[in-house]
Structures are given as structure tokens and as C-alpha cells.
Amino acid sequence: MPSLDDVTRPDGGRPPRILFGGDYNPEQWPEETWPEDVRLMKEAGVNSVTLGVFSWARIEPRPGAREFGWLDRLMDLMHENGIGVVLATPTSSPPPWMGRLHPETLPRDANGLTEWWGSRQHFSHSSPVYRRYAAALTEDLAARYGSHPALTMWHINNEYCTYDWGDEAARTFRTWLQRRYATLDALNTAWGAAFWSQGYASWDEILPPRHAHYMKNPTHVLDFKRYTSDMLLECYRAERDIVRRHTPHIPVTTNFMPFWTGQDAWAWAPEEDLVSVDIYPDPKDPHGGQYNAMIGDMTRSQAGGGPWMVMEQAAGPVNWRGVNHPKPYGLNRLWSLQSVAHGADGLCYFQWRQSRQGAEKFHSGMVGHAGQQGRVFREVKEIGHELSLLGAEVAGRRVTADVAVLHDWNSWWAGEQDGRLSALVDYTEIVRAWHRALWEAHTTTDFAHPAHDLSAYRLVVVPHLYLLDDTAIENLLGYVRAGGTLVCGFLTGVADEDDRVRPGGIDPRLRELLGIATLHEWWPLDADERADCGDFHGTHWSEELTPAPGAETVASYKGGELDGLPAVLRNGRAWYVSTLPEPTALRTLLTRIAHEAGVRPVLDGLPDGVEAVRRGELLFLLNHQREEATVRIPGRHRDLLTGVVVEGSLRLGRYGVAVLGEPS
Ligand code: GAL
What we know:
32% helix; Rossmann fold; alpha/beta; Immunoglobulin-like
């Protein structure tokens, strides 16, 4: 199987490198701009561009037409200038003629409203007509450019994310359900259809969960989410198989949206030759660096621990938040090198040149409206230069972790539905809080699926897996039995795979493992409410539970209805935290548990705000603050970015980064 290594570390020939560049949409510009683009790309050290992401209408202006001339010229131009091409199948934005001639290719929302052309991603994953046109275009693209020397990688579609509640979807949803359940009886049982008279007597009665009078059947909605992820994956696979047939040696990817609800990335990642992601932390978010770290950890884990790629990030502001902030000087570099520290071997942007027209004209580019004189482009050049210094030493090295955070889309989907006890419990927020606690404790963290082999980890953390199937439960039990340490946050193991509440409110096997005798009631907290737990406060949630004999109450609720009951419970190597401790308290708790489990921080004595990550033998030090920081380091090292040999300690300036290798 080809991989990212084949692009960054090809056999013989070129030295290892980190891919650097971005989405290049030259069809938006007069052709006279192209030579200028190439000149600036070379100045910035760009070695990779992604072409064609939104080029469908340009290539196929009429059904069946093919206009490849402009793309031929671009592919040649890139090759002549030593820039590799990540070639996209432009199937995420069909041309207007498709919707006009084949309205059934357009998706519909839950209210039956059509998503018309005029924006992007307006395709029904279930439409055979859409799929036929997409396959034909992919076939011709692969035939034409498969042997072009500029081609380094295939980029299928773009950020698969379209839901469809329309008639095309109704048809494939039924087929998907028939495969899952075989009989209507099995479906009715799984969905608990006896409730509210929902029993289905014929497959034809089943629809996507469209607009309804009141709350929808949660298992119906859960299955619809599973199905949507699977249908999009089918679209991906169809195009992937076509390009693979033409170019078995060229790696294939599709760019994930990070931590995006619509796509079960654990299921998708093994279908790719390399995993890539688009990361857009908010420059104003005081914890943006932690978010960047979390997405890096998650993507690396989806890539099986191997190198992965940032397919898109922003050099400055995005334009889809309420208020869109630029990146202050140094932040682009810091977050870029941080992604490299977390295992990225490719660092690309959306997009090369900022558009002057269209919906994203206020979204930054590597070359902004200020052009080559702009501060943003100057920083881009610095980053390109630094990546060229790092490439040979860094590419291909792995990051290893002793801690895994468990995350599963099924649980997210089931847990976020209507009809639960608190709408304030937000899955991503909870996962992020737990990851942040580990990150601030200077611990390197992987992500894993609850059914993955966890034996390599000293500590496994479950922030909030409301739904756990039997395989996952047995896996967690086996992990602790084999000597692992497990910490579970509140609302873990409540439901089975059909979203049926387990007897007793938490799976009985898990209850025994965690030392819970009885879970009497859940007590969600209001937004401004804090649960007094003695040394700290809990937020979001609290629980009325009785510990089993032998379990140790590490912290208990003080006052109120839950007075004296456990907030943190320990049963040997299994821990249960029935609230969300405030950030410092969660960090302190996890630091203690990690220490007992034999997990060490990457470096002792690191100041707050400075992150350390080891990638192979290299030590990345990243200062996430505007203030200078001094870091004590063991032994003598050479900073690969400056060439300077450092010993004993090191000063990092505002957003400063050092990459330490052996002194030689
Ligand atoms: C991504 C998308 C790009 C661009 C970018 C803007 O979601 O793939 O095409 O729209 O966002 O941030």
C-alpha cells in the first residue's frame, strides 16, 4: 500500500521532506497570474499544491464535456518547477447543470427543503445519477493524469459532510437498515418501536428522521447518523477504487473535518492510504493551542500512530465565525510547528492566494490581499524555510504515548439527542476538557476507539462514552484485568448499541469494575451551578450513587442532597468521576492518577504554557504564550531551527519554538 512516506521519503532520490503548500485554485485567476504564483511558491518553499477541489464546472461545463487543457498546462507548470500536485476529484461541488437536469441529485434537509446549487456540497450521496457523473469524471481524471510526473497524491472530494433526508436517501436508508437488521421485527425491537406506537409493518414506511411533531425516536436518529457516515464512505470508496485501479502506487486521502459529527473517522481512516485533516483553531481562543494539539493527537491516532497531514489550515482569519480574527505574529508558525510535533509530515493551507471574489474573499490565503509585501506572506516564507530545515530529520518519525483518551462517534451521536437530562452536556466540550487536563499536565496523549487494543497504554481515560457496546465493555474490563488503569467520567456505559439503557443505569459489569453499588439518580447542574466537592468544584453534572464495599471515596459532595456521596470513586485501578471537575482540579486528579500508573510528563519542571512533545529522538518545545519562558533541559542539544547548541536551559520568546536534536 502506498503511504505518505512515499511522498515525503521516496526511495532513493530526494531527501526526506515535509510537504508544504496549499489548495491552489488558479481557475479563479487570469492565466497571467500563474507564473507569478509559481515564483512566489518557490520563494516560500512550497513543494505541494492541491489542485481541482472545486473545478468540476470548469472541467465539465456541459454534461459529458471535458476541458482539460488548462489543467494540463498547470500540471506541467508545477512539474517544471518541482512542485508536486495533490490532485482532487472535484466531486464535492457539482456544476449547476446537474441540479437543473437532475433535481434528484440535490439533497433535502429534514424539513424537506432542497439544498439548491449556488453554494457547494449540494449532492445527494444516494443519487445514482450523481454517482455516475462523479465516477465518469474520476475515471477520466485518473486516466489523464495518472502517469503525470507532478502527481503525488489523490484527494477525494472535499470534507464529506452532506446529510440527505430526501427520497433518494429514503431508498438507500431502507437498504442499509435491511442489511443491519434483516427483519422488521429486529428493527422494531432495536428501535424500541413499541414506544409511541411506532411499530413498522412494512419497510416502505421507514423514512429518514424528517421533521416531526415532537421528539424523534433516538435509535432511528442514531441509525440515520451511522447510515450517513456509511453512505458518504461508499461515495469515497467508489472514487478511491477508480483512482487506485489507474495508480496503485499513488496514495489516496480525503480531508477530514476535525472532530466532526458527520463522519465516523475510525471507520474511514483505514480506507485511506494516509489520513489528512483541516484544522482551524480560533486565534482568539486562549486554549487554541490545546485544540490544535488535540486534533493532532486524534488524527495521528486515526493514522495508526504514523505520520499524517494537515491538508488545510489558515494563514490568517477564516470567514465563517461570527467574528474572524487574524493570527498575531508568530501564531501561524507556532501552530504549524506544533502540528509537526504531533506527527504531521504535511502542512498545507486553504488557500494559496486569497480570492478577490466569491464567498471566501475575506478568508485568508498564504498570499493575502496585501500580496508578497504582506506580513502574512512573510511568515509563510519563514515557515516554509524552517520546514525545509526540519524535513530530513523529522519526516517519518513517530510520536508515542502512554495515555489514550477514548472517543467514539456512536456514543457522541446517541448522547447528543433530544430528550436527555441536560442539554448543557456537550460531548466535544467534555472530551476537550479531559484532553486539556492531560495536555496541561505535559502528558502525550493518543486517542483510541473503545474496542481498540489498549494494551500499549498505562492509562486509559474515558471522558464521556454514554453508549458502549458489549465488545467495548469487555475490552475495558480486560484492559484493567491485565494491569491497566482506567478513569471514566460521568455518563459512561449508560446505553447499549441500540441506545437502550443498561440495567441499573450503568452497565452492571462496569459498575462492578468501578466500585458502584447503586446509581440512584443523575443530578445535572445548571450552567452557573457548582457542586462542592471539598477540594474542588464540579460542573455540568453530579450523581447520587452508593459505593460498593471496598471502593474508596476519594472526593465526596459537600452539602445539598448528595452530601457525603462520592464525586470521585476508586476501585483499585478503576476510577469513576461523577462530575466534571473544574480545569485545575481535573488536571490535579489526572496528574495523580497518571503518576500512580507510571506515566511521566514529557519533561519535568516545564512552566505552564510551554508544551513539550517528543517525536522520535527529537524534542519539540513550544511556548504558547506571548511572554518569554525559560525551560530547563537535560543535557546538550542542537536546536535544528537555529543550529545553536543549548545546554541546561533554553529561553523561548513569544510563541517561540525549539526543536532539539543531538548536539553533533
Ligand atoms: C474548509 C474547506 C475549504 C474552505 C475552508 C475555509 O472547510 O474545505 O474549501 O472553505 O474550509 O476555512
